[in-house]
Amino acid sequence: MEMDMMLTRRTLIRSMSAAGGMIIGFQMPGALAAVVAPRPWTTPTDGVEVNAWLAIDADGIVTIRVPHTEQGQGALTSVAMLVAEELDVPWDRIQTVFADMNRHVNDGEEYIVTTTHGSQLVRLQHPHIMQAGASARERLKEAAARAWGIDRSQVTARQGVLSANGRSAPYAEFAAEAGSIMLAEEPAIKKNPDEWWLLGTPTDRLDVPVKVNGSAHYAIDTRLDGMVYAAVKCCPVPWGRLASFDFDQVRDRPGVVAAVELKAVPGITNTRDAMQNGVAVVADSWYRAKTALDLMPVEWDFGPEGSVSNETLAAQAAQMLEEDGEVSGEVGADARDLLAAAPADRVVSADYHRPYETHARMEPINATVAIYEDRVDVWSPVQDQAAALKVVADQLGRDTRDVYVNTVFIGGAFGGNGGGFTAVTRQAAEIAKQVGRPTKVVWPREEDITQDQQRPPHYTRMTASLRDNGLPEAFFSRAVWFNRGGVEQIGPATADVCINTMPYLVPNRRHERHNVHAHIPTATHRGPGANQNGFIIEQFADELALAGDWDPLEWRIEMTKGLEPWQRVLLKLKEVAGFTTDLPRGQGMGVAVAEDHNSYCGACATVSVSRRGEVRVEKVVLVHNSGYIINPRGAGEQLEGSVVYELSHALYGGLDLQGGRFVNTNFDTYNLMRMPQAPEVEIHYALSEDGWWGGCGEPGGPPTPPAVANAIFFATGKRVRSTPMLRHDLSWA
After folding, report:
1. Residues 276, 305 contacting (CB under 8 angstroms)
2. What is the pLDDT of residues 392-437, one digit of tens each?
3. Separation CA 492–CA 724 (nearest Å)
4. Nearest one of 249, 254, 262 to 295, comparing CA atoms
């Protein structure tokens, strides 16, 4: 018997389930409806739309339309919880679909915000998301009030039922009427956690079941009739030129369809999705396309950037650290004068460095575009699906009304607006136009790392003087970072963010920075700025504490007195972590804190280091203060994930730039943390709950590497001032 079967992640998981290796019962109604529906806002149950955010069917099932991407951070669940809280409908009557971006872009942007980044979904968007639920609830009450001849204030809405004066009816009975009602004034939303019935309750993520059983659809899973596959190479030195390629050498290989030259638009180099010069081979399978591309002779003109390396950047940074920079913050008297006058034995100084880092997303960068006479369909792992629509419309010169984004699950994003907001989506659109067939572009890991928008490298010098009580009198910092265009800011990140905004109450401070142009494309990474600079400032804080004969945790408590969010975190960390500097040689504990996206997080790491210098991070205790938490289970998952993400880069990562290009471009040379290496993570909350909201997706990352580095110091006596930490000799006698 002949079998024709493609073995994929999905078929493997399904076969395991069928064979009895995994028995899971679940249902997530409509989770994928928006992926395949031509009009994704049409509910799978033919429900009645009350407003753009939700529809209710005859059985009382509420379909919530989520305009934010699900990249593993729990957006589907969080948005649904925020709406359901105000709508007041049983959680088991909720189903979710992705909102339609064509409707959003072309019909007045009724979802207000569709981006999913910077721990901002709950932190910044909860008012209008909750408002959608509250508005629907009040419209339902008004519809019932009109039918019953009473005032709306007499109607209660609770758990999907409207009630008044002994009468009751399910929401579904009045959904159609509610959809046509306009309220004179939008209702207030619940702001006090004491009012919540759902928010604040540990809730399972809705996307987990479909991911476990393999039915969740990612962009890379897209299969279309007549689809071809494209493998792409762009100049390994960004912004270099394609000199030549010889397609004749591979055009007759099996399955090969065409070669397409990709051309950068002159003058457009700073946008994240900008096309670079390159070439694609198109074939009937990606393997055939990739094989032919690897065999095809290609010559590059690297241009003047072909001599840049980590060493040349370090030399340039060393020079800049000796030169005055832009003043980014100053407090009290001129710290330089005070430092110059301080006795040498009371001055502490150190240089720190973090290199280029890549996102290393789990899902390889990819996009699929299908062009038809009356519409264009797009599948792309972009953190803002509306951005993918606009990119394709721009590349093809089509009206945005003709372009439809099929929102899918994203296999990790971690900043830079996701893998689809690189050049890949433009490439897919251009290649599909030239070959006249639906086209999927997949970047191999080497192209992914080479062409990704990297985390900028930082070089920082810090100097402080100590008073008689061992606490700092003056503090001076100078930072150098290299980024495309030499711009001051990338998202919320700057060269010295987390340093010039440190919480420590030093009376005299001066902070300077240099923003230096480099050819490597740069963009935000998870916890931008705080991820790099948290490692720097929080180790120097330990150095200052120890130089002044202070316990590092007590020093931080003393230096943040009066700052409630910080004190809350530090005092809780002292309570739960068991921090001590008195451990046997080869063992150490370290602490660090960082603020990121309006959240405050402290970490206490426990490490063991063998005599040969082999490091094991045993445990990380986190204390987190984001003001409020709407789903403790989801928040804990995000915090734990951010710990592992940042430790991966700080311990094992680091891009090696040689000859203008990165040379460690796959996981054999750019290492990430594996499961057996992951530490135990223990999470505690110390919530202020006094009016401000922070995020949870990123803040657990920045304090973790410095806590580990500080622990390594106590275990070995060696201070690790650059990453990756495991490239240092950490052996001890």
Report:
1. no
2. 999 999 999 999 999 989 999 999 999 999 999 999 999 999 999 9
3. 24
4. 249
CB–CB of 730/721 below 8 Å?
no
Alpha-carbon dihedral angle through residues 418, 420, 426, 430, given to the nearest 10 degrees: 170
Q: Could you read off the pLDDT of 568-616 as tens digits, one per residue?
A: 999 999 999 999 999 999 999 999 999 999 999 999 999 999 999 999 9
Tokens of 314: 């370090």
Look at the block and give the residue holding tokens 């997303």. 361
Give the C-alpha separation, 510 to 105, whole Å. 45
What letter does residue 357 receive in the DSSP assignment? B
The pLDDT of 7-36, averaged and rounded, is: 34
Query: Quick check: 224 pLDDT over 90?
Result: yes
Which helix (H) or strand (E) is 63 found in, with range? strand 62-66
Please give the domain boundaries of the chain with CATH numbers for all domains. Answer: 33-212 (3.30.365.10), 219-303+365-442 (3.30.365.10), 310-357+454-727 (3.30.365.10)
Alpha carbon dihedral 180, 181, 183, 187, in 10-degree steps, equals -90
DSSP for residue 560: T
The per-residue pLDDT for range 503-529, each reduced to its tens digit, is: 999 999 999 999 999 999 999 999 999
pLDDT at 531: 96
DSSP-assigned letters across all residues of 453-469: -BBPPEEEEEEEEE-TT
SS3 state of residue 350: strand
Average pLDDT over residues 437-457: 96
| Of 383, 379, 430, 413, nearest in space to 274 by CA | 430
Residue 162: CB atoms within 10 Å: 24
The kind and range of the H/E element at 126 are: helix 121-148
Residue 113 token pair: 């915000």
Given this model, what pLDDT does residue 7 score?
A: 37
Q: Are strands 489-490 and 493-494 parallel, antiparallel or unpaired?
A: antiparallel
Provide the token pair at 307: 């001599």
Task: Write the CB contacts of 381 (distance below 8 Å, at least 6 apart in sequence).
Answer: 71, 218, 219, 220, 361, 363, 365, 366, 367, 408, 410, 411, 413, 418, 419, 420
Q: Which of 145, 156, 157 is nearest to 181 (CA)?
A: 145
DSSP class of residue 688 equals -
| Pairwise CA distance, residues 526 & 528, whole Å | 6
Assess contact for 629 and 697: CB atoms under 8 A: no
Give, as one character, the DSSP assignment of residue 85: H
Residue with tokens 């100078």: 478
* Model pTM score: 0.93
Handedness of CA 71, 492, 389, 121 (dihedral sign): positive
- pLDDT reported for residue 452: 94
Cβ atoms of residues 385 and 101 within 8 Å: yes
Position 1 confidence tier, pLDDT thresholds 50, 70, 90:
very low
| Cβ-based burial of 635 (10 A; exposed 0-12, middle 13-18, buried ≥19) | buried
Cα gap 258→378, rounded to integer Å: 21
For residues 256-292, one letter each, b for 16 or more C-beta atoms within 10 angstroms of the residue's C-beta and e for the rest, the string is: bbbbbebebeeeeeeebbbbbbbbbbbbeebebbbbb
CA distances from 9 to 12, 205, 208, 215, 570 (A): 5, 21, 16, 10, 44
Q: What is the CA radius of gyration of the chain?
A: 27
**Cβ-contact 419, 228 below 8 angstroms:** no
